[in-house]
Amino acid sequence: MNGYIPFAAMAVLAGIGFVKLADLPSNHPAQNQQRVAVEPQRSGEAVAYRKNGHFMFNAAMNGRNVRVLVDTGASGVAINESTARRIGLQLKDSDFTGQASTANGKTAFARANIKRIEIGGVTARNVAAMVLRDEALGGTLLGMSFLNKLSRFEFDGNRLTLVQ
Known about the structure:
Elements: H1 6-9, H2 15-18, E1 38-39, E2 45-49, E3 56-61, E4 64-70, E5 77-80, H3 81-86, E6 98-102, E7 105-119, E8 122-132, E9 141-142, H4 144-147, E10 152-156, E11 159-163
Parallel strand pairs: 4-9, 5-8
Antiparallel strand pairs: 1-2, 2-11, 3-4, 3-7, 6-7, 7-8, 10-11
């Protein structure tokens, strides 16, 4: 389908339509530089508590700190160009060959692979990701291409547990 792929449609980002992180109020945890409550419970486990309706983690992507919002409705990880550069992904304009339909219209994306994502005691390697232009995505969404690498993840009220 000429550049459209199911991965891209991932509701792109169930995301860009759900909440554009750049548009959140300044007191929202996505824009607050303080750490969200993340508790390594045991080796191979991490826990976050819902804040303002969302589960947010401070993750390390390729060794760099990145704030992420867990989005089980997204089929993959979605990052913007600035984050991609910060975590060492080298992209050219010609890499943006995919096109996704979002709640905010159509946007170009590039496919990428994140070598390592760490959250608390959980590590996933070689995680497929989409890189969108900065103006199309103001934050980072952690979707199923990361979550499927875990043995399980579970919601219990306002608590999300990730298990290696």
